[in-house]
Design brief:
single chain; 495 residues; alpha+beta; Cytochrome C Oxidase, Chain J; Catalase HpII,  Chain A, domain 1; 3 domains; 14 helices
Length: 495
């Protein structure tokens, strides 16, 4: 292949790349040096708006291969037969950190997947945890503000964070996970991934079942301790990014096993908790994991900005055979995620190659910022019309969703659903070993010790009450670490 000529963006070959056009060797620059203006104008616009959440991340392309038949639950073509392989793109990220933050910050990790199926792109946009801090979307922006920077000092604020947690006991389940070593994964390869929300599957008979998606790392779970994570922040703040790139370049392709949990509508009605509450899990003993397939990541993008920075995910993007649920947090994300991408990348963000469906797309959306396709050509931009050959395929119609009520109102999210403590208590007692509990306590005490201001005691005591209600021993040990005197008998009596 011959060498390429240096050109302007419009394709004009250009030779004076290193020197501006001036009046004499020491004179002022001429306005007519248009390449100088073009180059600087483009430079000034190189940064698109940073993601409000999940700003720093790493991505890779790969494949998903079906290993087990689940067609009894879903007609989604991605799962149509054992051995079927589908291309995908994965992006891992931090939730609260900015673009320049360290990869080992204590934070949940985003686990976003885009499957390029023949029925459109399916985006599964979750985290490395099966639960979240809140259960209603109205709290989301306020929660994220507490994870960002204090509006006065522009510094991270443990006071803001613990004030919010203590005022929202529904956060306790996720707080215990965050403050454990799972809050500081060793790498993206060594963590599980979850759809987190409850979704639905629809089979060929239009029967709906509720589902949770789990991606189990085949590399094994590996975490930093708090001390190790802090040390790595100074050694290599891009540790997770580098780890993913180097593993794939060495052909040590990371893999995850996709497993699902399913729940019938009848089981949902009798489940101890609201099955659509994202602060709760479904116990594996009651709803065992079902094997589905293997995800492998095997190609790093040639250009990070093109594919990772411009990748756009939205849980609204489901495909035939996969649907939503009444999860209040999921319902809000269906609106807000696509809206965030339209703001960040433009209304035509799905024309960007990494986001583009590789199969036929036909609709009446036209024009708009960054329209880079054929824009519908000469075809009509309205429907119905007498000219085009776009048809509606009724076989893709979803079955109706029966509703439990015909009353629209602002219902208290915790009405008849205020048990925020049983599952966190079980997590602490049964799912964590002694070393896990020691690290958890250390991380909590270290973080809560930085609470400051006139409300310090109020915030600490409120949060301690939540710990006690989950597990008395947990509350006692945290209180002792914080130097707070607690009457154990009184706390046992209150519990």
């Amino acid at each position: 292949m011959g060498k390429k000529k240096l050109t302007t963006a419009s394709g004009r070959p250009y030779s004076e790349f290193e020197n501006s056009m001036t009046v004499g060797s020491r004179g002022p620059i001429l306005l007519q040096d248009t390449f100088l203006h073009e180059d600087m104008a483009h430079f000034n616009r190189e940064r698109i708006p940073e993601r409000v959440v999940h700003a720093k991340g790493a991505g890779a392309f790969g494949t998903f291969t079906v290993t087990h038949d689940i067609t009894q639950y879903t007609k989604a073509k991605i799962f149509s037969e054992v051995g079927k392989q589908t291309q995908l793109f994965a992006r891992f990220s931090q939730v609260g950190g900015e673009k320049g933050s360290a990869d080992t910050e204590r934070d949940p990790r985003g686990f976003a997947l885009k499957f390029y199926t023949e029925d459109g792109n399916w985006d599964l946009v979750g985290n490395n945890t099966p639960v979240f801090f809140i259960k209603d979307t109205k709290k989301f922006s306020h929660f994220i503000h507490t994870q960002k920077r204090d509006p006065k000092t522009n510094c991270k604020s443990p006071t803001m964070m613990w004030d919010f947690f203590s005022l929202n006991p529904e956060s306790l389940h996720q707080v215990l996970i965050l403050m454990s070593d799972r809050g500081t994964p060793f790498s993206y390869r060594n963590m599980h991934g979850f759809g987190s929300h409850t979704f639905s599957l629809i089979n060929k008979n239009n029967e709906r079942i509720w589902v949770k998606f789990h991606f189990v790392t085949l590399q094994g779970v590996k975490n930093f301790t708090g001390k190790q994570a802090n040390e790595m922040r100074g050694i290599d703040p891009d540790h997770a990014q580098r780890d993913l790139v180097e593993a794939i370049e060495k052909k040590d392709f990371p893999k995850w096993a996709l497993k699902i949990q399913v729940m019938t509508d009848e089981q949902a009605k009798t489940f101890k908790w609201n099955p659509f509450d994202v602060t709760k899990v479904w116990f594996h003993k009651e709803f065992p994991l079902i094997d589905v397939g293997i995800m492998e990541l095997n190609r790093i993008p040639e250009n990070y900005f093109r594919d990772v920075e411009q990748s756009a995910f939205a849980p609204a993007h489901v495909v035939d055979g996969i649907g939503y649920s009444p999860d209040k947090l999921l319902q809000g994300r269906l609106l807000s995620y696509p809206d965030a991408q339209r703001y960040r990348l433009g209304v035509n963000y799905e024309q960007i190659p990494v986001n583009q469906c590789p199969y036929a797309v036909a609709n009446y959306q036209r024009d708009g910022h960054m329209q880079t396709g054929e824009n519908g050509g000469a075809n009509p931009n309205y429907r119905p019309n007498s000219f085009d050959d776009i048809v509606v395929d009724e076989s893709y119609k979803e079955p109706p969703v029966p509703l439990d009520s015909d009353v629209a109102d602002w219902f208290d999210r915790n009405e008849n659903d205020d048990d925020h403590f049983t599952q966190p208590g079980l997590l602490y007692r049964n799912a964590m070993n002694e070393q896990d509990r020691i690290h958890l306590i250390s991380n909590i005490v270290s973080s809560m010790s930085d609470i400051s201001g006139e409300k310090k005691d109020e915030i600490m005591n409120r949060q301690l009450c939540h710990f006690f209600r989950a597990d008395v021993q947990l509350g006692m040990v945290v209180a002792k670490g914080l130097g707070v005197s607690i009457d154990e008998k009184a706390m046992n009596h209150s519990k």
